[in-house]
Amino acid sequence: MNDKSNITPHGNPGLKYGSLVSSIETLLNDARAKVVREVNRTIVFTYWHIGRYIVEYEQGGKERAEYGTELLKRLSQDLTKSFGKGYSYRNLQRIKQFYQAFPIVPSLMAQSEDEKWPTLSAKSELSKVQSAIAQLSWTHFVRLLSVKNEDERNFYLIETAENNWSVRELDRQVNGSLY
To answer: pLDDT tens for residues 18-33?
Structure first.
């Protein structure tokens, strides 16, 4: 006796129950998508800062780090003990590489301020890169790290964000040499 199609609202008899369910489902799906985007954004920025900490620690105030430290192996062991999976030696290498390959907002802003008269297209490109960085997931960035040329990497970064490419589609475009 739970025929929900016969349920009518008190204030608006013209509104159908199916419309109510549909509206709530849309609201919940939108909220879930927003949560996923925020979690991805938080992960990306957290990993970027972890990469920065690692690079700064390795360099010890010098312009370049001394080669051959065991830092990542030890850090991997300690972080894995505290936080579980996700902090393998290989992933910490990626996190460090991510920081170096994607100088997010502070570094990008410093670069544009160093230019006396940055061109409008340079400012536009900078803005597109910043916006794209905030939209992609960690898995997108892991795939983009394999693109060694910075201009090419930024091209795929912007295209991925503007076209809402999945990681699979990004992979297909990179392998197909869209650039």
So the answer is: 899 999 999 999 999 9
Name the region of 124 (left: φ>0; alpha: ψ -120 to 50; beta: rest): alpha
Q: Counting Cβ atoms within 10 Å, is residue 165 exposed (0-12), middle (13-18) or buried (19+)?
A: middle
Question: pLDDT confidence of 112, banded at 50, 70, 90?
Answer: very low
Structural domain boundaries in the chain: 14-101, 103-179
**CA torsion sign, 171 to 175 to 176 to 179?**
positive
Q: 3-state class of 15 per DSSP?
A: coil
H-only helix segments in the chain: 17-59, 71-83, 89-101, 105-114, 120-133, 138-144, 150-163, 167-175
**What global pTM score does this model have?**
0.73
Distance CA 155, CA 111 (A): 18
